[in-house]
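Hey, resending since the last one bounced:
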Amino acid sequence: MLKQVIANSTGIIAAMNTDPGEDVGLVVATRPHKLYTPQTMFFSDEVGNIEMAHVAAYGGTPEMVHDGTDNAYWTGTVKEGTWTLDDTGTITDHTPADSGDHCIKGVGTGKDGEIELAHPTSIDLITYEAISGWIYVVGWQAGKHLELQARLNGIKVGDKVNIDDYFTIGIQNSWQQFIVPLTDLNLTGVTIDAFLIKNREDLNQFYLDDIQIEETDTEFKTYQLKPDVGTNLHVMKMVTTYVAPLDMDHADANTPFLSYNNIIGVTLVKGWLLQRIQNKIVTVSQVVQSIHDMVYTGVVVRGIVCDGVNTMLTMEYTYLTPEILKADNLDSLKVLIQDPNMDDFISMRMAVIGYQEI
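The structure tokens again:
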């Protein structure tokens, strides 16, 4: 007797389905063939502008929240764990302008340690854009977060965000600024009377200083890149191009004269922030201020052009496997421009190269 089976290329036999009400038979199924289209897509703002070389600076008068009690701003209260709201002498605090020497100590808070920073009455955020502050990291547990959420009359309002999504946790023992847009907190035009800050891991050890709510901004923009509705975007490369007024000398015909601590002559004081968002969760965040910040993550210098007056620098990152952004999961890549010197560039643009699955 001759027997035959249907199997795949590795020898695994195809599954059979039998129905006692029918003769035994082989059921053949079909599935639609996936179609792919090559894509080069630019990061763009809410109106489709792809040019990122815009100054990002706040105007108006900020609402001062807490600076380690150097000044009498909002009232700080320890809700859970062990915090020091007026630490002095452990490290040099950040405060540059008020001759203060205090900051909030978040070292050894205990898991889920929480503080409340409460306004004497309430504050309408209609004219405000973001909450900012400074953080000094001395240790961090990967994947564990420092959470921020607003409150009104004892009830949490808006959305919760992770402060660690807005600075580079791997940079330690120096002050870094974080800037969280109120749109990310879902607090635009909302009235609040307090902020809650919760440390989700005792191994997250840090200090906080100069927390404030920033008023109306100048060209403070967010640029996003996301797949079209109902599609998946397979990202293979990310390309960033800068142009600045730099007459670049050369060591020889092949080696350009570039500084590691700026970007073709432009010195950024706050830099720009890159986030990778998956299922509404920030899975990657990095602040870029210099060529060094890009190169140590695997970005390479792809090309340099100089005409004796201006220089164009192209940086490229190649994914080892395609980074898949799924529209159904609301996946996206996001860039937050947050530096007052961004307009020192003649141009800055970012794009991805890949293919879209439909």
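The domain at 36-56+219-357 is CATH 2.70.9 (Adenovirus Type 2 Hexon; domain 4).

Sorry for the duplicate.
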